[in-house]
Amino acid sequence: MSDRLIQELEKVIQRLHRSEPDVYWYLNQALKSFRVEAYDAAIVMAWSATIAHLIRAVNQIGTEVFQYVFRKVYSERKNVPNRPEELVGEDERAFIQVCQQMRFLPVAGDELHRFRDRRNKSAHPTSQPANEDDARKFLELCLEVVSHPAQDVRILDDALLVDYALESGSSAETIVGLVHPEYRLSAATRLLKTYISNSGPEYDALVSIWRRLWNLLTEADRQKLWPRVIDEVTRALEGRNDFRSVEDIARFIVWPSPDEEHLHRDAIVERCIHYLKSKVRDGSFSDKDKEFALWLYDKVPTEFRVKIVRLCTLWLIHRVKRGDFTGADLDFNAWLKDQSRPDQQARFQTIRDAIVRRY
Question: Are 63 and 82 in contact (CB under 8 A)?
Fold first, then answer.
């Protein structure tokens, strides 16, 4: 073993003394064994250190996620372990497979399986005792695993995260807590893609997760996502999304404050208002569209609010002329009047009088 690797082992062992005492003990024993050329013992202790660290990592992510992944990997098994410790010593191959599917391993699963096979040979009488090269190789592999603090482990696979979010019923706080900070943009991108590509009430759970994750993103990451959001709004407005309406996507967005200057928000609002105007002009504007316009009104700056009031007023005038209004339109007319300038008040009095005469 090179001096460099010995120094690295000593450094990691020192760090683990307080944070992961069980891993510290095993790794320290592995180093002591190597130094006296007890290579098989070094491999056995290194494997124990690796497994102890992985157990901590799994528990850090959460036993619910562990059980969820176990059921996916071993769907034919009736007995699902309550804790990862239940597999250790009994079925470590399955434990490694589940860890691999949880997507947090810093090394390939196949490497860990080879490590496990060598450990089994070293722990039992064999005609192939380990040599120095074997011990060095697996101590290096052990270091690759245990050098990553267990308390910092998070899920690194976006697909697994979304699948778990849809099926587990866990809170948005819990789900977002599983995401490693470096992978938040990737996870947010996957959430957006999944939401806009599916319909059904089960996907509504993604909205609160998206919003919580969005609030944790850096401004630079948000700027990378906004163009994608604008593209999806445009696709929905043009009828090119078979799963989500523009209203769905608008409610998915985490809107910046109306008082804040924001070019991406304004681009979305311009598109939505143009869409609503076209529906007023062709006579297809409905009560549902009115509800969306009023919802949008609270999200946008004053200049867009004026446009929303204007298009809603025009719709109400057409509605009254057709005679298909209801009593609720009196309240809506009063609201529109309150949002308008003093020189426009007479228009709304005329609309009110027409509704009262015909209602």
Answer: yes
Q: Is the distance from CB of 48 to CB of 16 less than 8 angstroms?
A: no
Minimal CA–CA distance to 195: which of 243, 139, 123, 130?
Answer: 243
Helix 21-35, helix 39-61: angle, nearest 10: 160
DSSP 253: S
Q: What are phi and psi of 179, to 5 degrees?
A: -85, 125
Cβ–Cβ under 8 Å, residues 268 and 275:
no
In whole angstroms, what is the distance from residue 211 CA to residue 197 CA?
Answer: 18
Question: What type of residue is 33?
Answer: S
Please write the tens of the pLDDT for every residue from 128-180. Answer: 899 999 999 999 999 999 998 887 777 767 778 888 888 877 788 888 888 88
CB count within 10 Å of CB 88 equals: 16
Quote the CA–CA distance of 124 and 119 in Å, as a whole number: 9
Q: What is the CA radius of gyration of the chain?
A: 31
**Torsion sign over Cα 128, 133, 135, 140:** negative
CB 218 within 8 A of CB 186: no
- Its pTM stands at 0.72
Cα torsion 178, 183, 188, 191: sign:
negative
Q: Name the residue among 281, 287, 269 with its Cα closest to residue 332.
A: 287
Tell whether the torsion through CA atoms of 61, 62, 65 and 71 is positive or negative.
positive
Which two tokens mark 296? 């949008």
Alpha helices (H) along 102-154? 109-123, 132-146
- Can you tell me the distance from the alpha carbon of 66 to that of 219, in angstroms, rounded to the nearest whole number? 33
Residues 26-83 have pLDDT tens digits of 999 999 999 999 999 999 999 999 999 999 999 988 888 888 889 888 988 888 888 8
Of the candidates 49, 265, 14, the residue with the CA atom closest to the CA atom of residue 145: 49
Within a 10 A sphere around the Cβ of 287, how many other Cβ atoms?
Answer: 12
160's tokens: 């697994």
**197: three-class secondary structure by DSSP:** coil
Provide the total of helices (H) and of strands (E) in the chain, helices listed first: 18, 0
